[in-house]
Amino acid sequence: MNYKESNQYLESIQKFGDGPGLNRMEKILNALGNPHKDLQYVHVTGTNGKGSTVAFTASILQASGYKTGLYTSPHLYRYNERIKINNIDISDDDFIRHLEQVRIVLEKDSSIKPALFEVITVMAFLYFHEQKVDIAVVEVGIGGRLDSTNVIDAIVSIITNIDLEHTYLLGETKEEIATEKAGIIKDRATVITSEEDPSVLALFKNEAIEKNADLQSVSTRDIKLIEQTVDSQVFNFKKYKNVAIPLIGNHQLYNAALAILAAEALAKKNFSKITEDTTRIGLKNARWPLRLEIVHKSPMILIDVGHNPHGIYAIKKTIEEIFKGKERVLILGCSFDKPYQEMAKVLSELAHKIIATKASYHAVETDKILQSIEKSDKVIFETHNVHEALEKAKELTDANGLIMVLGGLYLGAEAKE
Question: What's the angle, vertex CA 263, arms to CA 189 and CA 311, rounded to 5?
Fold first, then answer.
């Protein structure tokens, strides 16, 4: 199997398994000798901020001298991006080899019909085990309790925040969704959250008591923004003064604070090389692409791949604060399986000139996006693809303007490429 064939094989696997549950994961892992069981983990779930939080946490561990695995999803360009050690993607050869191991198991037992995410998750565990990482930081796919990643026993669990998402699968209320996400809390672990809703916090507290886990939380009163520019910000959090991070937006302060508390918890759990200095270095060096990322300077082009209402409001707030008074052109495109009506309406408020377009994959048609926009004071354009949209945006602004590419993962990935 070469790399192209490995991708074709993965694409042939069903996106979802035969209903929720961990039984398929357990069967595959057991057949492979349970490679996940001898590793240490940080496990991260939540509605928004998972990616940034795992990036901050892994960067701190790496800066502290630990060989650090990182498992995230989805990818922007290649499946390899999901599996990293010390921020380097798994090689094509290792990717193919570990996929082959999983494929052999599935051929021997045709009753196991895994989801695509399950197969890649097993590959990550095989790679981390083989490479003898000191610790792996693992991002949940969906939910928590029944997510494919929840076969691990994490020593630190992080729950960023809770909002309505995947309600068909996780529940119709915040409390129901929180119950699913609280499923990653393990016996005698440390659990850290930035959620401040009292009813959700009470639910987390009860789960922590039941599991003899230590619950810690990030509170708004503990965070103070000191300085914010177009590509960095400085803040205080508890005893940590003037901490610098390269990701902008008020929401990133909470994600960084979660990583700080995770680092402190890990330092007490035999990861003694973590210090305040290595924590600061790790936060400053963290990279997580396409989160309010400036990819071009003249004109300034900003891309964000936020794709749910909660995230969109955070993006809008940050842009209005940092780029106040700047002439703005919006390139807008959304995925058809997201709440694009609300997202388009909110994002359209950021600019007078709007270019509706579509990514080459998973995109909603531009006419449906435009139906969601209040057009009374807008100059509206439509293009067939992202390349045309960027060319049109450059025509509409000068070197001092801001072009924003917003609305979805695939749109942002294509625009950066």
Answer: 90
Q: Which of 144, 103, 146 is nearest to 126 (CA)?
A: 103
Question: Where residue 240 falls among pLDDT bands split at 50, 70, 90?
Answer: very high
Per-residue pLDDT of 108-164, as tens digits, reads 999 999 999 999 999 999 999 999 999 999 999 998 999 999 999 999 999 999 886
Of 348, 409, 408, 359, give the one whose Cα is nearest residue 383. 359
Beta bridge pairs of residue 214: 190
Q: What is the pLDDT, as a whole number, of residue 194?
A: 97
What pLDDT score was predicted for residue 164?
64
Residues β-bridged to residue 136: 41, 69
Closest to 211 in 3D by CA, of 156, 284, 130, 272: 156
Q: What angle do CA 117, 253, 55 make, to 5 degrees?
A: 35
**Cα(380)–Cα(370) distance, rounded to whole angstroms?**
8
Rounded to an integer, what is the distance from CA 165 to the centroid of its chain?
A: 14
pLDDT tens digit sequence for 259-269: 999 999 999 99
Half-sphere exposure for 99 (CA within 13 Å, toward CB): 25
In 141-202, beta strands by DSSP E:
156-159, 190-193
Whether residue 355 is predicted with pLDDT greater than 80 in this model: the reply is: yes
What share of the chain has pLDDT > 90, as a percent? 90
Distance CA 370, CA 381 (A): 10
Give the span between the Cα atoms of 172 and 382, in whole angstroms: 35
What amino acid is encoded at 30 in this protein? N
Q: Alpha-carbon distance 384 to 195, whole Å?
A: 40
Bridge partners for 245 per DSSP: 233
At 196, give phi and psi (nearest 5°): -120, 0
Task: Kindly state the tokens that stand for 325.
Answer: 């008074």
Q: How far is CA 379 from the centre of its chain?
A: 33
Looking only at the bridges linking them, the beta strands covering 293-297 and 300-303 are antiparallel
| Distance (Å, whole) CA 172 – CA 237 | 34
pTM for the full predicted model: 0.95
Q: Read off the pLDDT of each residue in 384-410 and give the average, rounded to a whole number.
A: 96
Angle in degrees, CA 262, 209, 21, rounded to 5: 80
Rounded Cα–Cα distance for residues 18 and 24 (Å): 9
> Quick one: pLDDT at residue 163?
80
The DSSP string of 155-219 is SEEEE------SHHHH-SSHHHHHHHHGGG--TT-EEEE----HHHHHHHHHHHHHTT-EEEE--
